[in-house]
Amino acid sequence: MTNDDLKAIKQLLQSPKKIVIVPHKNPDGDALGSTLALQLYLELKMHRCTIIAPNDYPDFLKWLPNESEILKYDSDFKSCDTLIKEADIIFTLDFNALNRVGDMETALSNSSAIKIMIDHHQQPDDYATYTYSDSKMSSTCEMVYHFIDMLGDKNIIDTHIATCLYTGIMTDTGSFRFPSTTSDTLRVVAFLMDCGADHSEIHNQIFDTNSYERLQLLGKALSNLKVIPESKTAYISLSQEELNAFNFKKGDTEGFVNYALSLKDIIFAAIFIEDKQQDIVKISFRSKGDFSVNEFARAHFNGGGHTNAAGGKSDFNLQDTIDKFISILPAYKNALNNE
């Protein structure tokens, strides 16, 4: 973001505005943490703010401050369309292409509002009036912190804002263990703790509220784990029947792919999750080192993300999707074995 852009945004925000804030479809901790923190901040500055999420999200995120005020587009699209149409400013957070918002895409594309993107994924589209994009940042929450700081308002970050920002940074960095965690990230986290973010309670809310069914599903996922040693690759698959058997709820498979990546000598990991309702297979990719799952997902599975964490999807059935994945691996054998 240039200095001129920042000056223009400061000028925009000097008087009360009608603002809509949007995360990506199936929002995670970083998407919700960043949108809620930005809403709380802008409301302190006397703006009228509404968060519109494309759809629902896991229960383990529903304790976040102000979460109950989030609107879901898929359950109230008429009211949401009106808010989008009337908005002066639309912030899009934690995504950089409008196709990431599902059924909201048309309403956002047609809106005449000034659009401001804040995002840390690679290869952003150019739909926004103002773009704050930095793929080296650990999370969009870390970027929202810097955004507030650049506007000269770091001193008004309160306990609720700090809690939301800490949550997103913690979840997107894998509890600060991913390579995207920098010394600057930890300095931001320290400041948020000084502002009142309770790191122990946040961790408990996110990670220590497992249901019996989720742990049983994890057991099933691990029993389905397969290893392809010549490509230093491991993958997990879960069919719709298996999900149903363990009373699957949104968010229950969060983090499962990391178990595959934790295997000794594994560089590349994937999880394939059948979704009969949408008639697709959802895919998450993880990697170590310089092997880019962002490029892999973009090239083969209509996805993208970060160098070491990305997502994709397949219109094939579960077995055909896995077969396609396995058939592609030989082309990457040298890259994976050189890591």
Explain what the structure shows.
- The protein has 339 residues and is α/β, with parallel strands linked by helices.
- The chain has two domains: 3-207, inorganic pyrophosphatase (n-terminal core), CATH 3.90.1640.10; 212-337, Diaminopimelate Epimerase, Chain A, domain 1 (Roll).
- Helix content is 40%, strand content 18%.
- It has 14 helices and twelve strands.
- The protein has helices spanning 3-12, 29-44, 77-86, 105-110, 140-150, 159-172, 183-194, 199-207, 212-223, 240-245, 256-261, 293-300, 318-328, 333-337; strands at 18-22, 48-53, 71-72, 89-93, 114-119, 130-133, 226-228, 233-238, 268-275, 280-287, 304-305, 309-314.
- It has a six-stranded parallel beta sheet, with helices on both faces. Strands 7-8-9-10-12-11 form a six-stranded mixed beta sheet.
- Strand 9 (268-275) and strand 10 (280-287) form a beta hairpin.
- Helix 6 packs antiparallel against helix 7 (183-194).
- The longest helix has 16 residues, at 29-44.
- The radius of gyration is 20 Å and the shape is globular.
- The two termini are 34 Å apart.
